[in-house]
Every structure is written in C-alpha cells, then in structure tokens.
Amino acid sequence: MTKRMGFLVRTFMVSIVLLVGCSNGDTAKKESTDTEKKIVYATSKDINDMNPHFYSGSMPAQGMVYESLVENTEDGIKPLLAESWEVSADGKVYTFHLRKNVTFHDGEPFHAEAVKKNIEAVQSNASKHSWIKLSTKILDCHVLDEFTVELVLSEPYYPTLLELSMTRPYVFISPKNFVNGGTKDGVNGYNGTGPYKLTEHKGDQYAEFEANENYWGGAPKVKKIIAKVLPAGETTFLALQKGEVNFVFTDDRGTNSLDVNAMNQFVESGKHQMIRSQPMNTGIIVANSSKNESPVHERAVRKAFWHAIDRETISKQIFEGTEQPAYTLFSSNVNYANVEVEKRGYDLEKARKILEEAGWDIGNAGEIRTKNGKPLAMKLYYDVNSSSQKTQAELIQNTVKRIGVHLEIIGEESSSIANRRSTGDYDLLFNQTWGLAYDPQSTIAAFTSKSSYYHTTRGIERADELYKKIEEVMVSTDEEQRKSLYTDILTIVHEEAVFIPITNGRVTILAPKNLQGISFKQTQFELPFERMYFE
C-alpha cells in the first residue's frame, strides 16, 4: 500500500482542461459536431510509463486505454470484457465467459489465451502487487476454450470481482507488447482494448489519445484527448480566463488546480457548470495505539482528541464547503459501511471531562495536563506539500491546547510519513482511506498490514478479535455474515478511536454548459471520457 498510496494521492491531484477545436468565421458555426472537438487535459505530471501492470503511469490515462474483465458501478459489478461469469459453490473458482469480436488496438484478438497471459504476467511479479490481496490468492488461470477462462484461488475471497475491476493491475495489454514473455521487464507498446488509444507521447510535454473507432462498445463521440503537462494554479486560471481552457477535474485536498471561489466565478459567468461527485474517501488522523510511551496509547486520550476537532470549521473555512464533516471512517455510500455508531462531535467540555476521568490533571488554565508526572504531549505529522493538511494541523494544535494538550505539528514528505506509518514511529499522522473503489475491503485489510495500519490497531484491547474478524470477512461466501462482520469491525475501531475522521473528499468538475454525458466512476482517479459529448 505504501508505494501505491504515494502515487495515487499525487495522481488524484490532476486537473483536466478542455479545448474546443473549430475553424474560424462561419465555418466554425457549422462545424459543431462532436467529431470537431477534442479534450485537452492539463496534468501536473507526465503520463509516464503506461505499462498497465506497473504503478508509475497516470491512472486517468491508463483508464482510457486498458480494460478489465468486469466493471465496478453504483449498482454493483457489471460485465465489461467478460459478458458473464459463475462462481463455484466453494468460492474458489471463477469462470468467465469473454466478449467476442474484441480486438486490441494493434488488431490482435482478445480471447482466453490473452487473458491467461496477462494474468500470468501480473502474477510473475508478485512482490510488486502484494498490496492487492487477490494477487496472493490466485493459484492458476486455465483456458477452457477460446472465449472461456477459469481463475482458481487458494481460498474463497469475496473482493475478487472488485479487485479484478480496478484500473490496475488486472487489465489487458496485447501480448505482442510483452517483453521477454511478460510485462515485468517492461513493454514495447501500449495497446489495450479501451475506447482510446495512445498515438503520440512527448515526455513532460503532452500525450495524445485518439478514439478507438473499432471499440466494441461503440466509437467515442469525442475523437481526441490530449494530456498536456502544465503547472497547476494561476496557469490554469489564466487559461480559463482566455478561453483556452474550459474544463477542470480536481480534488479538494491541498493541491487544487483552482479553488472553489475561482470555480464559482466561472459558473456565475453563465458559461460553465460545476458538478460534484458523491463522497469518494475520508480524510483521517491515524492514532498509534501501540506506542506505549505516548499518551496516544490511551483510548481516553484518543476520544478526547476526537471531540476536540472542529470539523464544521475545517469544512467551511479550509475546504470552503467542498468537503463535508465526517464522523465515521467511511461515508454511508461505501458498501457495508452504513453502521450505527456513536457520533462524536466537537465538544471541548466533553473532551476535558474524558481526560479528567482518565487521570490527566491540569493546574491553571492554559497549562498542559499531566499524569504521573508525564505531560500530555503528542506529535502530529502532516504532508509538507499539502497546504490543507498544514492549515488543519495548525487549527487542531490551537484547539487542543484549550483542553490541556500540547501538540507539536511536523511537516514531512509523504514518503517519510508513509515510512513512519509502517515502522510505528509516530503518535498521530494525516492519511486518508483508500477510496470508493477500494473500500471498505482494502483499507480494512490494511489494518493488519505491517506496512500500513498494524501499529494503529495492534495496541487496542480487542486487536486479536479484530484481526480474526477481518480474516473471516475476506473469505466469507455469505452476504449476511459479511454484513455482520463488517459491522463488528467498524464498531471496534470506532469505539477505540484509532481512525479519527475529519472530512469526506469528493471530485469536482468545472465544464462548459454544452458538454453532456459527464459522470463519475466508482473511483476518484478516472473519468469516463467515452461517455461525453457536446450538444
């Protein structure tokens, strides 16, 4: 998870700009069809290596080029390259019936043998994919006939279809692009089956994608998409002002291409629309329950800290209302996460009472509490490149001082914070859930991972019970049992206050009013460009 999160959080901070290409004068009025228009999106990073079985490439770009067997939608798992599938009674064998008449961008046929080769290419590089639990469960992939493939697991694993639907690594590239019989040594081209194909790439400048006219789902109406490397911020704003840019796709956390006030200016002009997704993830503060020498080891301290966070102010003043206050680890739209738990709001009096009852005494007002001669002092680590995290940290620092807590805030690079999380060298640190497509299963699986949240959960009283329930839920083949187990898991970590929620993050699109078909996928990292068209 550590490697993945470092990239994913950065990739999430991508902005997209759309440029309408038409000729001048009367001709421009006539050439108003979708074929004369293109999307140009600006990204702060190059698309990099588009090998779909690696993690350095741009996820929005990879999502246009490559496809998976199944698709994760609001209505559940739906067919994509597999038209249908069956799961054996013991939950260990998945049989997929593939879509016929599908070709890779290089003209090579998509069939069961291509599926087998791609899955084996992923599995041959197992250490690279250890963050995704499915990679540890796959035993074999069998070709039953030209368009039927069988995936054999070592044990039942209910998130199998969810993890097969992700942007990577279980997506398909033409076997002709393999190097040394696989993809772990690189690839010699980027031919997928998706709605767009990569036609030109100039490193750190731009990448050009053209519509796949032979796409099995029908040729996209927008015929060209360009990923242009540009700095975020004022450059994007000025481009919008000049009319060179009129589409922005951005998150709400710290490195936005545009702030909300700027977006509202364009909406008020009457030429743009703003569209927001449902909650995609939760910004959290992670508490190290296993650090015995720190006050954060105590549940009472963690609960008091939870009550001392003014989420309403953070939502309104720091995120300008774009992110909503969060009181649970996952938003209710996450599968299995609509669980009844105690709501802990901003309440300094309650926080003081909790600390006093736990033996943390205070002398005069403004002093730091102590217990057995030990001060109530902790450190909170934040991403030095995230302005929103820094501002939140400063606000929280000032607030908890009012309940007798000394909080030192420290900014570090995200890689350093990830290392602290894996080694346990922290009291508190900012983080976020994995996101809609990956939750709850991926975040919860990370509770037991020594590279992720092991130190967060290891010190709680019911740690062994928690780990047992996590193990059970991942292999359960009974839906009602899974619901019950997730309820128990989420209740335990909520009661222990080891994951302290702040706000729910969403995705914002600023687009011209005549652009239709705008929607979101069940992930914060991609947009379905192929569904867009102009009126």
Automatic annotation (TrEMBL):
Gene3D superfamilies: Dipeptide-binding Protein, Domain 3 (3.10.105.10), Periplasmic binding protein-like II (3.40.190.10). SUPFAM superfamilies: Periplasmic binding protein-like II (SSF53850). InterPro entries: CntA-like (IPR011980), Peptide/Ni-bd (IPR030678), SBP_5 (IPR039424), SBP_5_dom (IPR000914). Residues 77-452 form the Solute-binding protein family domain. This is Nickel ABC transporter, nickel/metallophore periplasmic binding protein. The lineage of its organism: Bacteria, Bacillati, Bacillota, Bacilli, Bacillales. The gene is nikA.
